Amino acid sequence: MSIGRGALIVIEGVDRSGKTTQCRKLVKSLNDRNIRTELMNFPDRSTLTGELISHYLKDKTCTLNDKAIHLLFSANRWENHDKMKELLENGCSLIVDRYSYSGVAFSSIKKNMDLRWCLQPEVGLIKPDLVLLMTLSDEVMLNRPGFGNERYENVEMQKSVKEVFQTFADNEDNWKVINAAGTIEAVHQKLLREIISKIEEIGDSPLEKLEF
Ligand code: NYM
């Protein structure tokens, strides 16, 4: 398939919804169809800010002001902005495992953190062409194999994050909700269908910027 620019596709969802597995499969399936695609994930732990973030997530004794860590997560996206823009403009699509919405969801549910404040550092980043939200009922979410050991990996926090994601899905024009409860292959096919149809739709339309 020949397209002008690449598509920016973001996969969001709570932990254990299968995002990472699906992202990898999607990149492979798209490349197999000659749609040049790369995988990215946030936080990108390979950069300078990524190392700080990874330390904060792993070491629960690490105390860092909630606004400071929020800005670090955002800076981690800005660090990758130019590279993403170049890839997209050169016709390479990106499948991105978490983006600004995870940043806003995980920070804004904390005490004394304001949603509007959390949105601001994300303004101006590249707007995804499509955000696919992988949802699970609380029941299915709780029955999936256990959380890891990092900060935020607990049921209460995940339930609150899920609500923020749902609010985005209800209000943003570029979101689509995908039930992630099926088999890996069935969910993969649903995601792939949505992505291919979006890639066909965008053609050579210019990249847009995030605004809230
Ligand atoms: N997270 C992720 C944030 O708190 N803010 C962000 O901006 C992003 C992108 O990091 N629990 C949280 C969500 C996850 C944690 O992500 C690590 P992952 O995808 O498990 O490496």
Small-molecule binders here are: 3'-deoxy-3'-aminothymidine monophosphate
Cα(first) to Cα(last) distance is: 33 Å
Q: Shape, please?
A: globular
Radius of gyration: 17 Å
- Overall average pLDDT: 96
What's the CATH architecture name? Answer: 3-Layer(aba) Sandwich
Q: Quick one: how many beta strands?
A: 5
Per DSSP, the total helix count is 8
Search tags:
single chain; about 210 residues; alpha/beta; Rossmann fold; 5-stranded parallel beta sheet; 8 helices; 5 strands; about 50% helix; about 15% strand; globular; binds 3'-deoxy-3'-aminothymidine monophosphate
SSE layout and pairing:
Layout: E1 8-13, H1 19-32, E2 37-41, H2 48-58, H3 66-89, E3 93-97, H4 100-108, H5 115-119, E4 130-135, H6 138-143, H7 155-171, E5 175-179, H8 184-202
Parallel strand pairs: 1-3, 1-4, 2-3, 4-5
Helix pairs in contact: 1-8, 2-3, 3-4, 4-7
3'-deoxy-3'-aminothymidine monophosphate binds at residues 15, 42-43, 57, 73, 98, 102-103, 106, 152.
Protein name: Thymidylate kinase
Enzyme class: transferase
Pfam families: Thymidylate_kin (PF02223)
